[in-house]
Amino acid sequence: GAGVSQTPSNKVTEKGKYVELRCDPISGHTALYWYRQSLGQGPEFLIYFQGTGAADDSGLPNDRFFAVRPEGSVSTLKIQRTERGDSAVYLCASSSPGLAGERAYEQYFGPGTRLTVT
Amino acid sequence: AQKVTQAQTEISVVEKEDVTLDCVYETRDTTYYLFWYKQPPSGELVFLIRRNSFDEQNEISGRYSWNFQKSTSSFNFTITASQVVDSAVYFCALSVRSGNKLVFGAGTILRVKS
Fold first, then answer.
1. Does the structure show a pLDDT above 60 at A100?
2. Which has the closest alpha carbon to A88: A61, A53, A55?
3. Per residue in B36-69, pLDDT tens?
4. Pairing between strand B74-79 and A113-117?
């Protein structure tokens, strides 16, 4: 089936502008995660949704970052007043409990959105 | 707090050599989950394996094998008879609750030359 998709694949914006990044998780996956990956580093956690609610937003760097998942499927990461330091690849992942009571913990990642703030 | 350390920044091997990627983790939780992901040049993270803290059995999948040792807090990954297609960045990651966030190491760049 279809994997996690993210749009746009690339986004170039000017400092101070507002951007939205979209994530479509794997169908049926209840958990959705956002990570940020800077060049040469491992992904860093931003926020995690279980259904429609944010279960853990401890990774959001400041109040310029906000994410929503209004219907428990698609999620949008919103960044206000972008700064050059926000330039990175933003990764989305999804996961879901498995069958027969077994809980699956594997997170399946999308291709990412490369954000460049000029 | 949790931490994952991948001390090897970059490794270069010649095709058919065996190579081991090291991963050391830190957590105070007694239940946790360890993962390895592969990130090829295309950029998309590919899940390789998950291991629970209460299951120390080593695992083999084709040319890949994983050695989990709680006594040394390590979860090392070995590729046997490496191939050029194995060239990628490999990340080790840790999660302390089911379905919770992953804490990643900095990654190890593996270059396999023909």
1. no
2. A61
3. 999 999 889 999 998 889 888 888 889 999 999 9
4. unpaired
* pLDDT tens figures, B73-88: 999 999 999 999 999 9
pLDDT at B98 over 70: no
Is there a contact between A107 and B104 if contact means CB atoms under 8 Å apart? Answer: no
Give the burial class of A91: count Cβ atoms within 10 A of its Cβ; 0-12 exposed, 13-18 middle, 19 or more buried: buried
Name the helix (H) or strand (E) containing A111. Answer: none
Contact (CB, 8 A) for B96 and B14 = no
Least Cα separation, residue B14 to chain A (angstroms)? 23
Tokens of A89: 């690849």
Residue A57 sits at the chain B interface (C-beta within 8 Å)? no
> What is the chain B residue with the closest CA to A107?
B47
Integer Rg of chain A from CA: 14
pLDDT (0 to 100) of residue B56: 82
- Residue A14: name the closest of A116, A112, A107 by CA: A116
- Number of neighbours of residue B6 by Cβ within 10 angstroms: 21
Question: What's the gap in Å between the CA of B105 and the closest CA on chain A?
Answer: 6
Q: Are A105 and A113 in contact (CB under 8 A)?
A: no
Distance from CA of A102 to the nearest CA of B (A): 11
